[in-house]
Amino acid sequence: MKKIEHIGIAVKDIDASNHLFASLFGKEHYKIEDVESEGVKTSFFECGPNKIELLQATNENSPIAKFIEKKGEGIHHIAFAVDDIENEIARLTEEGFKMIHEKPKKGADNKLIAFLHPKSTNGVLIELCQDIKE
């Protein structure tokens, strides 16, 4: 793993949250994107070398809707940048980590993604991210 790629924050209202975080960071988000496969609308902010991803559920069955219902708004996951997501999934599986996604899938912000199950990471949802090479 190279670095923290972003921190994901579950929100109920992405427009209100965009306003709040724009005020906090002193600049607007750089991208809004729907990820239909995950049932979310995302908004990305850059804060120095780091990124914050806001996630709003687009349907009641989305993982974000379930997260907010159970825990409320707040930090949802920490994403780490990797060079080769398939090798990293294999390495982590071999180390005994449980994967939610055993194969990478397309995510937001031009990334391939895969999540580790929080039961194998002390309750922290970890996302692996690899840039999609065009």
From TrEMBL:
Its EC number is 5.1.99.1. Coiled coil: none annotated. Residues 3-131 form the VOC domain. The keyword Isomerase applies. Keywords: Isomerase, Metal-binding. It comes from the Bacteria. GO terms for molecular function: methylmalonyl-CoA epimerase activity. It is an enzyme of class 5 (isomerase). Belongs to the methylmalonyl-CoA epimerase family. PANTHER family: METHYLMALONYL-COA EPIMERASE (PTHR43048), METHYLMALONYL-COA EPIMERASE, MITOCHONDRIAL (PTHR43048:SF3). This is Methylmalonyl-CoA epimerase. The lineage of its organism: Bacteria, Pseudomonadati, Bacteroidota, Flavobacteriia, Flavobacteriales. The gene is mce.
